[in-house]
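Reading is simple: each integer encodes one residue's backbone shape. An example follows:

___
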Amino acid sequence: MTPDLQDLSAAASAGKGVRVRSLLARFQDVRTATEAWTELLEPGDFVLQSMPDASPTGWHLAHTTWFFEEFVLCGFAPGHERFHPRFQYLFNSYYETVGERVARHRRGMLSRPGIGVIREYRSSVTAAVSDLLMRLEGDELERALEVIEIGLQHEQQHQELMVTDLKHAFSINPMRPSIVDRPPRAEPRTIEGPTRAIIFIEHDEGLFTVGVNEGEDFTFDNEGPSHRVFLPAFGLADRLVTCGEWMEFMEAGGYDEPRHWLSAGWARRNSLEDRWTAPLYWENRDGEWWRFTVHGDAPVDPAEPVAHISYYEADAYARWRGLRLPTEFEWEVAAIQAGRDAALDGRFRESLRFEPGRASEPVEPAGGPARLRQLFGDAWEWTSSAYAAYPRYAPDTGALGEYNGKFMSGQFVLRGGSCATPESHIRSTYRNFFPADARWQFSGLRLARDSQN
């Protein structure tokens, strides 16, 4: 090999080493963060499943590990011997291409394997993936890096689900236990006193580019392809709707007035099984509203963003106010124009304070323009947009093509992340989605209106 080619080879090898080491460090960080959440749990906590939509914490720990074993080790390590031959059946979620699985509503019946074996499983797969990455070369390494990145993003999604699923299970316990202690307030953005009235930030009409193209920084396939949309002029509220503002809706009979509600929402609100009169986890005690949190019971703070509401409730509130929910493209365009750093003043999973925070005090100079706040973190924001494919969308090939595309029916898009979302996981193009009656996530709302200009 000539000296020039040797230099190029060494440079390529060094570049590979940097990329692999960087991903390995992130791999370890994400896996450790997942496990740290469980350190204070009792053995019985790991098998709790309080409703079909939720999953036990132990299952989450094992499923996120199965993802790496199934798609990384079995895909790129010939001859890999599975940790246990039945784990593919136990911990597959919804991948029809992979094979049969335990029905979702029966996951809470899996007392075995116990948490000790699940932790051994995690350690074994984490070590095997780390070893494999150091051995792969060329195109095979590139493909493996892509799949591992999807696995890390997937595990961060489950980090949030572990919080919301266990919160729902604990809320049913008459002891009202806390999962973790409430950390002291530390955010300089926290303010006391009355919440400032909402200000609408106006946006001109225009033709805008939304979504992302393949080859940019990691995104899920449902965030693209990039395409152009026309938006009429609109105004977007500078902050999230607060609990105090939601109480006004309740006191005005908002839950009892069908003219504010979509037909399906009104039927769901009046369900005999679970009749809605307030957000999930709220309870009236002698005329005072309390709520159950990850940190135990607490009085409702009127200045904090309302959360744990369905799309139906969010839409009814907006109609009651004579306003509306934003479309997902209005939200995305506004977020891009605001800039992620400018809007990144919400609370995230890393704070370990799993409740939406108060909006920051405006810092604009007197007479200066207002800005959007709480775009990222605190509470997911319902949009009026149905979860559907973008123009020219095609799901990924193989089993991983089942990740997003097959759910594009009967759901609505949420944007922005929540207090349980890892900060590194969220971005302006990220599309979360849930059915219209889902309430157990940290879901809130931001109001929008047609332009007043």
Remarks:
- The first strand starts at residue 200 and ends at 203.
- The chain has two domains: 3-171, 200-450.
- Residues 3-36 form the longest helix (34 residues).
